[in-house]
Structures are given as structure tokens and as C-alpha cells.
Amino acid sequence: MELIAGVDEVGRGPLAGPVIACAVILPKEHSIKGLRDSKKLSKKRREELYDIIINNAIDWNVNYMENDEIDETNILEANINSMHKNISKLNLDVEHILVDGNYFKPYKNIPHTCIIKGDSKYCSIAASSILAKVSHDRYITELCKLYPDLNEKYDLLNNMGYPTKKHMEGIKKYGITKYHRKT
User: Fold this and answer.
1) Residue 153 CB coordination number (10 Å)
2) C-beta separation of 125 from 57 below 8 A
3) How many angstroms separate the CA atoms of 144 and 42, rounded?
4) Which of 30, 160, 173, 175 is most buried (CB neighbours < 10 A)?
């Protein structure tokens, strides 16, 4: 059986918070129903699928690249680095990597295929999309629990760090926080 890892990320577009990537290896024959692009699922359904995925995956890993790490390189490099780190932390040797999107830097000598809208076409990419999205939302939610001002000033619980009108107004009024990206 060829071990294929699906890889995806969440958080390339936000103004605040990390980029979170995930790698998932699913069994060739699995019974997980409803795997699709995380953006096409309700929050409730993503949460339900999160536990199902981690309990049924052969292997998986989620990795965070914080905003300061993004600022040190750039979002594309941070994203690729996060994906590479995920693959390196899998317990099994991957034989092929399926990447959501149109760009990926080779990892070791493992063949890879970039697939635009891959999270709508391949279950392993969809599973990684879901794990990454749930992890991202949990990260922002926990951050707002620890620092309620982040939500009050920037509306982070509603925008999850993305550049909404309220988020932009918060930045204009209060400036950026240590959780915001500078690049």
C-alpha cells in the first residue's frame, strides 16, 4: 500500500495569528463520510469530523507557524516550511504528497502533486483542510479567552484574524498587537 499524505493549510490571508498546516494519511478504504473543503462545512460539522479524522487516520500532524515566523520570511515560505515540518513529524515514511494549491517546494526526494482545489477532490487533502481549520479556529478562540481585548477591539472571534471591516477599523484605532503580522 502506497502511503500518500494530503497536505493543506489555513491562515495565509489573515492579518493576525499563525498559518496552520496539516498532513494526513488516510487508509485507502475509509468510512469517513462528508470529507470536503473545510470552507464548505459548518463549524459544527468540522468539529465532528475533526475527531473522526484523527481516530481513523493512519497518521496525521498539525503544525503552527506563528506570525513572527511569517514576518521573518514571508507567508509563502512560512506555509511551505509548515507543510515540510508536518511531513517530517509523521511517524510513517510518506511515498507521495498531495498538496492543495499550485505551489510546493520538493520535500526530500518524495514525489508530490499540486492540485488546485485539491481539498474538493482528494479525501486526504480535505481531511488535512478540516484539521487545519479547526486547529486555527481553536487557536484564535483560545487567544481571545486569554486576552478578551483582542475580540473587543478587533472582532477576532468573528473574523478569525482575516481582514474584515471591523478588524481593519480596530487596527486603525488601536494599532497592531504582538499577534498581528507586520508583513
Assistant:
1) 18
2) no
3) 21
4) 160
pLDDT score, position 63? 93
**Tell me: the pLDDT tens digits for 65-107?**
999 999 999 999 999 999 999 999 999 999 999 999 999 999 9
| Residue recorded with cell 473587543 | 152
What nine digits make up the cell of 76? 509563502
10-38: buried (b, 16+ CB within 10 Å) or exposed (e) per residue?
Answer: bbeebbbbbbbbbbbbbeeebebeebbbb
φ, ψ at 35 (rounded to 5°)? -70, 125
Residue 25 has pLDDT above 90, yes or no: yes
Cell of 175: 494599532
Q: State the DSSP H helix or E strand holding residue 9, giving kind and residue range, or none if neither.
A: strand 4-10
Give the pLDDT band (50/70/90) at residue 1.
low
Question: What value, to the nearest 5°, has the Cα angle with vertex 80 and ends 33 and 147?
Answer: 80
Give the DSSP letter string of 51-63. HHHHHH-SEEEEE
- In SS3 terms, 136-167 reads as HHHHHHHHHHHCHHHHHHHCHHHHCCCCCHHH
